[in-house]
Design a protein that fits this description.
The chain has 233 residues and is α+β, with helices and mostly antiparallel strands. The protein has a single domain (2-230), classed as Chitinase A, domain 3. 21% of the residues lie in helices and 32% in strands. The protein has helices spanning 12-22, 29-45, 69-74, 166-171, 178-181, 213-218; strands at residues 2-4, 47-51, 57-61, 65-67, 85-89, 94-100, 112-123, 128-132, 143-150, 153-158, 200-206, 222-230. Strand 4, helix 3 (69-74) and strand 5 (85-89) form a beta-alpha-beta unit. The longest helix is centred in the N-terminal third of the chain and has 17 residues, at 29-45.
């Protein structure tokens, strides 16, 4: 059976109501985490069509094959797209699929860059899109990440110049979800110069503990499809 998401738009009122909608006041934190685990497992095993408010499918997700970090490394830090593989990072609980590693090179230790992120954010628990900026119709302001690498530790914040992008405007925080930082150890950050240049693209399943402040508060997991591209200085 296919799942058709219900478009909610980018609504602060909706986000404010999420803690009430996602769990009962009677639930313990352990019970909320168990519900989250079940929701992630169900998402992994099903076919999901993430749709726009017009009903068009913008992201299609087939049942997922989960691989270990060791298998991921043995495959030269790649995920097999034909098998719809996602690697599970046990320390964070984040699942990642590298759709494209991208042009350019990795962010090396000591480097800082501004990275443009285009994304779709989907609440797995409520089967609904929360925010997106992948199309100008929904957001004319890009999300820019200021990121640095210090000996393999990535530090990042959303750039809030000119009012910031969709993530900042929705959550009123410059904090980049910790789950978003996982791909930077593996993808390349360059710019699309030629028509056939392919910028980095990943898909993530992010548990609440590595998500936005709202996800942490309401205890819900999130699916993201994100592209990363180095910006012009």
């Amino acid at each position: 059976m296919k799942y058709m998401s219900k478009w909610t738009g980018i609504s602060l009122l909706f986000l404010a109501l999420l803690p009430c909608a996602s769990c009962s006041d009677d639930q313990t934190y352990a019970e909320q985490k168990e519900d989250e685990r079940k929701a992630i497992n169900a998402f992994i095993g099903r076919v999901t069509d993430i749709c726009s408010r017009e009903g068009d499918t913008i992201v299609h997700v087939d049942p997922i094959t989960v691989i270990s970090e060791q298998q991921f490394l043995n495959q030269d830090s790649t995920t097999n797209l034909s098998l719809n593989e996602y690697v599970l990072f046990n320390n964070s609980g984040v699942y990642m699929q590298i759709v494209r590693k991208g042009v350019g090179g990795k962010l090396e230790s000591g480097q800082r860059k501004k990275v443009l992120a285009r994304y779709v954010e989907f609440n797995i628990m409520s089967d609904s899109i929360l925010t997106r900026n992948d199309a100008l119709y929904y957001s004319t302001t890009p999300d820019i990440i200021d990121i640095s690498n210090s000996y393999g530790t990535f530090t990042a914040s959303f750039n809030i110049d000119n009012g910031g992008g969709s993530m900042y405007r929705t959550y009123r925080s410059a904090e980049v979800p910790a789950g978003w930082l996982v791909p930077f150890s593996y993808v390349h950050l360059g710019r699309q110069v030629n028509e056939d240049d392919a910028i980095a693209k990943v898909r993530l399943i992010v548990p609440h503990s590595k998500g936005t402040s709202q996800a942490r508060q309401a205890v819900y997991p999130t699916f993201y499809e994100i592209t990363f591209q180095e910006t012009r200085e």
